[in-house]
## 1
Amino acid sequence: MPEVMQPVAMRLKIAIQKSGRLTDHSLDLLTRCGLKYSRGKDQLMCYGENMPLDLLFVRDDDIPDLVQEDVCDLGLVGLNVIEEKRLAFKARGVSTLFEQVQTLDFGRCRLGLAVPDGFKYESAQSLNGRRIATTYPNILNRFLNERGIRAEVVVLSGAVEIAPRLGRADVVCDLISTGSTLAANHLREVETVMESQAVLIRTPVPIAPEKQDWTRRLLMRIDGVEQVKGSKYIMLHAPRSALPAIAQLLPGSEAPTVIPLEGRGDRVAVHAVCRENVFWETLEKLKAVGASSVLVLPVEKMLA
Ligand code: PRT
Ligand code: ZN
């Protein structure tokens, strides 16, 4: 039987957000890993057409539980959600079993405290005796306890930023990316409670032998896709004597390849993968130390 047709129990299951800020990025990551899938409208599950894996579309808050309980082998979710879940489990005396495999290059935001315009804020101590609205009570309580602040935490499931206007809270603790939602609601950011981005988590249970090969391959591909983001392949010609200066200038590159140029005396070709973007300023500096014919190319795939 072709492995893509394996029985359901032998197929990898990956939980991703059904509809929200992480959905497109998660699907894009899996597509870049080579996955082909078809998804009908409002479908909760879809089948990988060329890999023995299925995607489960769920609310992001349910992803840690599905992975913890081994209903899904892997999950893509925000660090803010797993940290909140971890602290909630801890409060109930349950230990977190799912493992964080790696951080992913999307979903960046921060959980921050914001006060209404006109609120006199001097330090975190200004929060004493205040009511703070949030969807993340456990993370917020940890922040307050670590600083010995006594405040009332008002738990809301959404629309946190309008709580001060409704008279339900004095301060808000919510996710922020550009800050425009706060500004539109006349709120001012005063503290960062935690930084967040999407992460890949996996089940605590050893993965069944039939699924291990694809798990290993998928994790390697995800790592490859993450490494490629922002990476560039750079090629240039230079005098051999300039190699130390060039090595200093190439951002995040390891062991460049140096190839002699036929009939060009001391000049060599240098090829290197840079793990960061290469800016015009770097090219100008490379030219200044003797480089010529400098080419910067995008990297499409990488396998360490
Ligand atoms: O239905 P479901 O429960 O799955 O979705 P959700 O409404 O809980 O989540 P969603 O789609 O809003 O966010 C999913 C994840 O994206 C979050 O858990 C974070 O890890 C990440 N993320 C990144 C964000 C933001 N950026 C973000 N800006 N999540 C929410 N926001 C909201 C924030 O709550 C506020 O309302 O965007 C607003 C602020 O944005 P700015 O740009 O105006 O600052
Ligand atoms: Zn959610």
## 2
Amino acid sequence: MTGPALSIHEVSKTFANGVRALDGVSLTVERGERIAILGRSGSGKSTLLRLVNGLERPTSGLVSVNGTHVTAQNARSIRRQVGMVFQQFNLVPSLSVTANVLCGRLAYRTWLTSLLFVFPESDHELAARAIDDVGLNGRNWDRVDRLSGGQQQRVAIARTLVQEASIILADEPVASLDPAISEEILSLLCEQAVRRSATLVMNLHQVDLACKYADRIVGLRMGKVVFDMPASELGKAETALLYDS
Ligand code: ADP
Ligand code: MG
């Protein structure tokens, strides 16, 4: 594949209630980049990621993944290219680690597989490998609601890995976790993205974590990009743009 992983061109999003969540956002993300999007609550970070994985449509402007407009693709096609990790993990609590991870394979399987929840051996092998990769080997058949928050986020990461998506989005992936666990989860996410040459876009609200784990930082304020720069160059002036009133 050639061209950028992700291209967002002059995108605006106004919700039915009149809230303009994004206002003329343009952003190009090259393959293998690791980006953090920083901004206050309500600045439009989640809306931006939801436009990339097709959960929302732009009011105007274009969003392309791997060179194809998101609006021209069906949900299954997007799922094969874009994985998402959420703040609240979004697992099925009563199911096992393995069953939750297998859900990441649904984009590749028929409706009958989804109905019967019977996956081929190759999917089970992929799931077992991903569970191992996130450090949960031995917990494969535990119910996820018996796991700690950090372990649950590991399951969600494994589910994204078996999607074999080239773009991984993470919406405040550590906002529900302790500081020490947050670092473990972010370093796991980055390590796995690098190993798979995947592009990683993370919404974060801690500036220190963004600088430590991303190579590029995009600042959003009231739906607009207020800076876009290498993490190593981010200074007080930029963070003031985001957080000073
Ligand atoms: P962030 O993730 O940075 O906190 P969001 O993208 O969730 O920001 O929200 C941006 C703005 O859009 C906020 O004012 C929020 O209330 C509004 N918003 C988000 N989703 C919806 C929706 N489905 N309907 C109406 N307003 C929404
Ligand atoms: Mg959000």
